[in-house]
DNA sequence: CTGAAAGCGCTTACAG
DNA sequence: CTGAAAGCGCTTACAG
């Protein structure tokens, strides 16, 4: 292994000077710099990142803390992860995956000193992991939000997204619009509450009572939502989904119950990928999640924080993008 | 920050002894050990992983080298990634994501000394990255295979999988079976060739000429395959897909051309997730890829290699699992 | 069974 | 503008 000492010897300088040149931390005479750069080139030297980390007490590694995604990983999640990895890499950072199940394990990892900061996925309304993170004194950025006065976060702008979805349906003449979300368990993702209130807000001017259906993010959940829609809310002419995993099941379920999409029921699925929309028959109108961008922004926001960049917005909110498919049409005549 | 020195002082021993206790590398008198463990507990000490890495020249970090997956990430890929992360973590290793586009960047990263070994995804038939990896002298495991005499790898057993798919269709009475794969570009994934030859092998006893259709792994690709099937190979009564991304498009396309699934054409999609099958209408019969297991096995194989574990099988091949849906039935009467 | 000490390969005040 | 030296927090022969 070629070390900084080898380079220093070849260039007839001290290792300190080599370090200054590599890091650009101090001005070095042009001739000296040239000698050092030549030596680096000739020896094909690469600075050892571990030694650098120990000496500078900065590892330039970020952790992505996430629950077990092996099973229920949806398409937006991977886009998010890859966006974060890409964003970190471009700034010279590495991203480690930390599948953590319990808070103790998380604290343990955090205390090891491997990472300079953390990205926390799937943030829930009251999230004990956030407390642990705060206690660890490690800088971090949330993906999603907890309560109101939040630490730095990036998130989908669900309020705007839901409003636009409702607006799109209104533009087609719909007035009785249902919402399909996920169940609010003790530790629901913070977004459920936000989505619901945005929905209530958006349909208020229409003068019809709300219809909220919460089901698991699975095909079975989607079919259950279809049944609820047809039986409990038969007057609804359109539905907004904020439940990626249930989207396909809902459409299949609705059609299995003898109702056509969009002739009898218009469907719009928010916070999913355009690819999902294309897979379903009829092609689903979706609001595509800005997952890759959010992943990248999350990494960048954290790095800005670590490097003390000024004027960096502490938090970012991005809406989804409407991608019209064939699942929205005019409401049926009665 | 609490260091090993703090622990040593409190327990009245040298830091060497603390190290022996923590790592279990040398026997230590029970009383001494107890004192040290108590001190660790009281001070809530955690060994610094960076210092350990530098001193032991083992970082216990693995790299996952992958192409840009931001856009075309399919469901099996994320399962694979998460499986690898999980497997590494359970053995006390960390997994960093390295989105690498060009070989130089890869060599550069490899030379930094951050990782003890690498996992290479999406291996192609002739893959220059493998050469770089060999040149770096870093241990690695491939996901997928290149040519014949391969370095250690884990892969889907495509031969067995395709045979089983054909067998399943034969069990339903099909004899004219087509194959849909991906295009063989200059750098095709190594699996395409394997899949094709397994297919040729499996249908040989049926006595009908092969029908191979290669399309992109997208909805558009799937529709193109549907057209090719209906127009160029109208006598085929069943199709085996080894093209996750084209699966939905193929079914939609076939139905759009007025042919029913499975009444006119039976469809089986290999190396995908069961979730994908459920999303499509009619529910697709799939051969579910053992992606989470393969990810885990890849990490474990690499770690075994790093730790010099004996009797560890150098390479692993796992077939997919049949998950019956509603897309396979008897061939149409003519 | 335990300790003193060298060393891993860098960074960073400090001095000149 | 450059260098000598301390130090980051561990591991690991070596000695006793």
Brief summary:
The structure is a homodimer of 334-residue chains. In chain A, 44% of the residues lie in helices and 16% in strands. Chain A has 334 residues and is of the alpha/beta class.
Description:
The structure is a homodimer of 334-residue chains. By secondary structure, the first copy, chain A, is an alpha/beta fold. Chain A has 3 domains: 4-47, Orthogonal Bundle (434 Repressor (Amino-terminal Domain)), CATH 1.10.260.40; 61-156 and 291-318, Rossmann fold (3-Layer(aba) Sandwich), CATH 3.40.50.2300; 158-289, Rossmann fold, CATH 3.40.50.2300. Helix content of chain A is 44%, strand content 16%. The first copy, chain A, has 13 helices and 12 strands. In chain A, strand 8, helix 11 and strand 9 form a beta-alpha-beta unit. In chain A, helix 1 (4-11) packs across helix 3 (30-43). Strand 2 (94-99) of chain A pairs antiparallel with strand 2 of chain B. The structure holds a DNA duplex (16 and 16 nucleotides).
């Amino acid at each position: 292994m070629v070390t900084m000492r080898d380079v220093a010897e070849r260039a007839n300088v001290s290792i300190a000077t080599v370090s200054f040149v590599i890091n650009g931390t101090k001005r070095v005479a042009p001739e000296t710099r040239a000698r050092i750069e030549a030596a680096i080139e000739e020896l094909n030297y690469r600075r050892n990142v571990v030694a650098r980390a120990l000496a500078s007490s900065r590892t330039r590694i970020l952790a992505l803390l996430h629950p077990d995604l092996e099973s229920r990983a949806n398409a937006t999640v991977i886009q998010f992860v890859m966006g974060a990895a890409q964003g970190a890499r471009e700034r010279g950072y590495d991203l480690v995956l930390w599948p953590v199940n319990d808070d103790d394990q998380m604290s343990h990892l955090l205390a090891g000193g491997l990472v300079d900061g953390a990205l926390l996925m799937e943030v829930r309304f009251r999230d004990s992991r956030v407390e642990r993170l705060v206690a660890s004194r490690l800088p971090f950025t949330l993906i999603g939000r907890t309560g109101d006065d939040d630490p730095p976060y990036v998130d989908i702008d669900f309020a705007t997204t839901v409003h636009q979805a409702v607006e799109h349906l209104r533009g087609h003449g719909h007035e009785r619009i249902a919402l399909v979300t996920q169940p609010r368990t003790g530790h629901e993702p913070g977004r459920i509450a936000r989505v619901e209130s945005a929905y209530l807000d958006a349909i208020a001017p229409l003068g019809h009572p709300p219809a909220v259906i919460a089901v698991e993010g699975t095909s079975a959940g989607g079919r259950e939502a279809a049944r609820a829609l047809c039986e409990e809310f038969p007057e609804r002419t359109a539905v907004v989904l904020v439940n990626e995993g249930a989207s396909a099941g809902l459409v299949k379920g609705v059609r299995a119950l003898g109702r056509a999409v969009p002739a009898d029921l218009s469907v719009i699925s928010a916070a999913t990928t355009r690819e999902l929309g294309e897979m379903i028959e009829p092609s689903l109108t979706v609001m595509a999640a800005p997952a890759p961008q959010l992943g990248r922004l999350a990494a960048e926001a954290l790095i800005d924080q670590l490097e003390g960049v000024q004027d960096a917005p502490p938090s970012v909110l991005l809406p989804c993008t409407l991608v019209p498919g064939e699942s929205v049409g005019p409401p049926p005549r009665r």
